[in-house]
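Field reference: sequence -> structure
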Amino acid sequence: MASDKDRTNGQDLHGVIDRIHAMRKDLSPTAGRIADFIVLNAADVVHMSVTEVAEKAEASEGSVIGFCQSLGARGFQQIKIALARDLVQPVQFIHEDLTPGDDTATVVEKVFQSDLQALRDTRKALDIAALAKAVEAIRKASRVEVFGIGSAATIAEDMNYRLLRIGIPSRASVDSHVQAITAALADSTTAVVTISHSGSTVETLTATRLAKEAGATTIAITNFGKSPLLAHTDVVLNTLARETQFRTEAMTSRIAQLAIVDALIACLALADYDRSVATLARTFEVLATKRV
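Structure field:
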């Protein structure tokens, strides 16, 4: 079981309500009642005891504490502090779905605000210690394999391109058969990065499992919450992006994923600064011949 320090990594907890929304559909009936009570009564929960919340949600105190830990907290007290902090901060944007009556200006406003909010929420949800572990794993690896299917395929291709630009041997696999073969041929010197918003896409889930069984270090860029992918992942880098009725597979998730890739590449480049600068210079010269 993870220790309290492992759960929080010394960081303040942010975005409790958004974390609950992200994992709500996967909760058990008991955890669901606790989640719904906290969301609907956040201002009151700040002043309640764990016993009172347990009684109101018709759950045990242990279930309430376990639910708090699933959100990344040490326990109920940290959730109360995080809720209080979130409640006093001004609401920057209420996640709204698009409606048939929205005019062009309203659509643009909602889409841009949602994308901006995804970046803010992801910054708060991102585990900095986990990012550092991902950097170290990639630096030690002899090669990096990046997996992505569907809307995540473009993110996988982008990450591969940027790894190559700073001199890290990498390959992106966006075909399920190639992913399976690549994963099966991985070993302890391989780092695998799987990009999946849901964490339950069959193709990337299978490939990640195969890579883990082959001895590779597995890294996932996935939305906060429970998913099958986590069982086969050594390092998790969470996004926190909501997809609404008219924006399933929307840019919110991909923008959040790109932001994490951006931060990861920057950290890798700085960790081996001289090599990265020299490689960027060489690749720039090569790419310059492609321009008129």
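Note: The CA atoms of residues 11 and 127 lie 8 Å apart.
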